[in-house]
């Protein structure tokens, strides 16, 4: 196809704004699926972790045909933790669809992704989604988006963006909310049944038409020397490493000899083995791919993100891709607990090192460094979620390891002063809980930016050091009785905020290896919150509960009730235990202090002390 018949778009939005649902509508109405084909919701979120968490973690490509145009669609992550994915993908598209919830308005992570788009000079298309919500405030949200564009330094051309309105769940997009008003009033939000193929005689055709109207007419540069940059990496068990990117100039064909220009400007010749383009959700092998299209090449084993693929006679490097630097790190340590090797398949230093090196090939936002110990690696990323996703993937693959408390990465400014990462926190809570949340954030070094109240709920915007937000989510959920909403994004590096207290309460530490008993847990539960159920194997140094006081307490959760042949009313009653607390991975990472570790296996997440023996802890003063 000619360059002016190929359009590349990205859908960008905050988590839960309907991004993956809109892509479903693109695919359904673009004719990708058969009429009788069963299609899963959020079909682009194909990874197990993505489906479980309901978020997009990895950017993916697909394409649809509409009106003689091939439209390549890139589904981008909404979390700022995956900024390395977003930043590269934005370079491969001609425009972005900015999806904003009609009630929530632009959220912190919307701001981050939009900023990357504006820096590339793209003119977005604004789509106000979920206009059928009862609390929709369409006009106010549009004004908020205009303010956001101005805050981000948008040009006059970028400020003149087009606006559409839609219900992505129904596969409906309109140019004026009034066009869908009668339909919404008649059907009622509760009666709407999801239908990505459109409903009520409406579809997303206005969005297709506007994309073509805004992008068509690009000059065809297929006659110029080949040039494109690798923006993503993939791996295939049969054909090896894959390089993915948009062809800026020229054409490329399979078996062609190309020049690969690296980050340092050095050039080397390689032969392209196979060539692919996207058709629908699948990768299709092609003999020739022309400029403007997103292609996948194989046969270059050492290819990496940022490499420029050029005509062998014209090796001209494109500007290198700048990746946001990591803000948080933790140590990945070989598991040395008494239960080590019982549940995992890959447990040695060599196996963990090889897995981390493999991750580095496709996860460029990650940094792995050696430590002073031969059995530990310092792994740095963009945030808790970025690192916890990696740990969860390794766990599911059969790896067993221990990880330390996440620590922020400090830097020095131009004057040699210590700085630390600060995050913007947007919180929505019922008014009665606002005071407690504000008080807690103040204790954690936060500074209030904005406070608004409407309809019995408060919207609070804070900036707070990342250190202070570790462990805050669990406290926030408890303080707001689960009714609060909190979103965070990296804001900037600012001056060091001073000391921030760690967890106040001490923990219960098992004094011996064994199996927990109801009798022991019942007695301990009177003065502590338990983390283990009856019948759970424990070992010396394992954390089994949260103490009601500030100091740690060594306990015996395996103690059995002494038995005799005497019976007495009242002493033989059945034990009634309170439910124990079960930690998700992120909660466990937030909970631990500096002298503790999280032991992660394919079957269990355990908390433990770094030093298992009580005598060793006393000697070290911990």
What would you say this structure looks like, in words?
This protein is α+β, with helices and mostly antiparallel strands and 622 residues long. It folds into 4 domains: 3-215, P-loop containing nucleotide triphosphate hydrolases (Rossmann fold, 3-Layer(aba) Sandwich), CATH 3.40.50; 227-311, Elongation Factor Tu (Ef-tu), domain 3 (Beta Barrel), CATH 2.40.30; 411-495, Alpha-Beta Plaits, CATH 3.30.70.240; 507-620, OB fold (Dihydrolipoamide Acetyltransferase, E2P) (Beta Barrel). Helices cover 24% and strands 31% of the residues. It is built from 16 helices and 36 strands. Helix 3 (83-90) packs parallel to helix 4. The chain starts with 5 loop residues before the first strand and ends with a helix. The relative contact order is 0.09. Residues 34-46 and 185-194 have low confidence and may be disordered.
């Amino acid at each position: 196809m000619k360059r002016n018949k190929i359009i590349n778009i990205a859908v960008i939005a905050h988590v839960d704004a309907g991004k993956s649902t809109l892509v479903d509508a693109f695919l359904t109405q673009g004719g990708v699926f058969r009429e009788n084909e069963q299609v899963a919701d959020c079909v682009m979120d194909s990874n197990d972790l993505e489906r479980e968490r309901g978020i997009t973690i990895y950017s993916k490509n697909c394409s649809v045909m509409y009106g003689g145009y091939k439209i390549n669609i890139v589904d981008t992550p909404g979390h700022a933790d995956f900024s390395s994915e977003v930043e590269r993908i934005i370079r491969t598209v001609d425009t972005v669809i900015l999806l904003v919830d009609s009630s929530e308005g632009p959220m912190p992570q919307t701001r981050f992704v939009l900023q990357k788009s504006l820096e590339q000079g793209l003119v977005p298309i604004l789509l106000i989604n979920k206009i059928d919500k009862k609390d929709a405030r369409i006009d106010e949200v549009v004004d908020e988006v205009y303010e956001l564009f101005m805050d981000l330094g948008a040009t006059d051309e970028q400020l003149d963006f087009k606006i559409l309105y839609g219900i992505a769940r129904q596969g409906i997009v309109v140019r004026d909310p009034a066009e869908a008003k009668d339909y919404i009033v008649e059907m009622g939000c509760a009666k709407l049944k999801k239908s990505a193929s459109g409903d009520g005689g409406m579809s997303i055709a206005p969005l297709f038409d506007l994309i073509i109207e805004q992008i068509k007419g690009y000059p065809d540069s297929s006659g110029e020397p080949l040039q494109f940059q690798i923006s993503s990496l993939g791996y295939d068990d049969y054909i090896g490493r894959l390089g993915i990117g948009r062809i800026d100039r020229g054409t490329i064909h399979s078996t062609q000899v190309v020049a690969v220009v690296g980050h340092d400007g050095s050039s080397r010749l390689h032969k392209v083995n196979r060539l692919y383009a996207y058709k629908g959700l699948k990768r299709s092998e092609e003999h020739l791919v022309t400029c403007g299209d997103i292609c996948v090449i194989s046969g270059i084993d050492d290819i990496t993100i940022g490499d420029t693929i050029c005509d062998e006679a014209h090796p001209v490097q494109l500007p290198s891709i700048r990746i946001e630097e990591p803000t948080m790190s933790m140590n990945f340590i070989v598991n040395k607990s008494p239960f080590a090797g019982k549940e995992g398949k890959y447990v040695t230093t060599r196996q963990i090192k090889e897995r981390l090196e493999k991750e580095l090939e496709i996860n460029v936002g990650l940094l792995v460094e050696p430590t002073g110990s031969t059995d530990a690696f310092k792994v740095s990323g963009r945030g808790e979620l970025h690192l916890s996703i990696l740990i969860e993937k390794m766990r599911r693959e059969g790896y067993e390891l221990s990880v330390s408390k996440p620590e922020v990465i400090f830097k020095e400014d131009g004057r040699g002063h210590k700085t630390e990462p600060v995050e913007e926190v947007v919180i929505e809570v019922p008014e009665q809980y606002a005071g407690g949340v504000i008080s807690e954030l103040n204790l954690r070094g936060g500074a209030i930016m904005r406070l608004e109240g409407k309809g019995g709920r408060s919207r609070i915007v804070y900036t707070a050091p990342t250190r202070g937000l570790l462990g805050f989510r669990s406290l926030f959920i408890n303080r707001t009785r689960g009714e609060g909403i909190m979103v965070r994004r990296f804001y900037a590096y600012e001056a060091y905020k001073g000391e921030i207290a760690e967890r106040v309460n001490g923990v219960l530490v098992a004094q011996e290896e064994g199996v927990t008993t109801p009798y022991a847990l019942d007695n301990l539960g009177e003065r502590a919150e338990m983390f283990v159920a009856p019948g759970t194997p424990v070992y010396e140094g394992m954390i089994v509960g949260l103490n009601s006081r500030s100091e740690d307490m060594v306990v015996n959760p395996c103690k059995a009730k002494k038995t005799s042949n005497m019976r007495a009313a009242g002493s033989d009653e059945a034990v009634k235990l309170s439910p124990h607390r079960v930690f998700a991975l992120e909660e466990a990472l937030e909970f631990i202090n500096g002298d503790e570790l999280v032991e992660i296996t394919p079957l269990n997440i355990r908390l433990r002390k770094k030093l298992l023996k009580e005598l060793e802890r006393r000697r070290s003063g911990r």
